[in-house]
């Protein structure tokens, strides 16, 4: 299989979910073996490969390099992983990826408009050399070697209950069944989030608010919540900088657990 990039640059503007500030990204074609590169437009167009960034989480996934930050990278990365785009440059004006409608749909639509370009270079997909597992109380994640990517995801939340999904990676299925699933938050958390200085750009337009009286907007799928968690995982595992083949099981996961997994995978693949 050859590597891919996009044919044309595309631009997306909008408000960041956490910073509440307007930002703009331009996604541009990149040559084979580039991977995902961020270009800090506000910092003399400094370019940094995703593998060279420091990863942290706080209600979202944050990348950092020399004191420069990019908040909420998970949905754009999910779209790139879901559509199997190997090489792109993402120029960022501002500090956060626009939240759009809280899902990956806008990114997918824009990337599809941009068109796919095939690059005559073999695609390198990470093969997991051994099983990896992380448990944290009643939450857990484990990954097994496989020749394709498949994910089992289970969640349990108040007002939502248990939801589960089994996903075998396929770009068409990703586009139709995963990408449109939106971010969600809980009514009783809103005060805490505001105190912590988060979710400043949160609104009924870019997230589903869950409370005792139901949901703030009609759901796009009855199990939209677990689909969104899977969408987040598809983004977080692309922090590896390359696609991966593995069977991944997640019970009550979130960005912390996803990023722990990414760090552990980096350790075992660096060993070889
Ligand atoms: Zn998300």
Q: Helices and strands in order, then pairings?
A:
Elements lengths: L1 E5 L3 E6 L6 E8 L6 E5 L5 E4 L4 E4 L3 E5 L2 E4 L2 H9 L5 E6 L11 H10 L1 E7 L3 E2 L4 E5 L2 E7 L3 E9 L3 E8 L2 H8 L5 E3 L3 H6 L12 E4 L2 E2 L8 H13 L7 E8 L3 H16 L2
Parallel strand pairs: 4-9, 11-19, 14-19, 16-17
Antiparallel strand pairs: 1-10, 2-3, 3-9, 4-5, 6-7, 7-8, 12-13, 13-19, 14-15, 17-18
Helix pairs in contact: 1-2, 1-5
The structure holds zinc ion.
Written overview of the protein:
This protein has 6 helices and 19 strands. The strands form 5 sheets. Strands 11, 12, 13, 14, 15 and 19 form a 6-stranded mixed β-sheet that branches. The model has no long low-confidence stretch (mean pLDDT 94). Helices cover 23% and strands 38% of the residues. The chain has helices at residues 74-82, 105-114, 171-178, 190-195, 224-236, 255-270, and strands at residues 2-6, 10-15, 22-29, 36-40, 46-49, 54-57, 61-65, 68-71, 88-93, 116-122, 126-127, 132-136, 139-145, 149-157, 161-168, 184-186, 208-211, 214-215, 244-251. The chain has 2 domains: 2-122, lpxc deacetylase, domain 1 (Ribosomal Protein S5, domain 2); 126-270, lpxc deacetylase, domain 2 (lpxc deacetylase, domain 1, 2-Layer Sandwich). With 272 residues, it is α+β, with helices and mostly antiparallel strands. β12 and β13 (139-145) form a beta hairpin. Residues 74-75, 183, 228, 232 line the site of zinc ion.
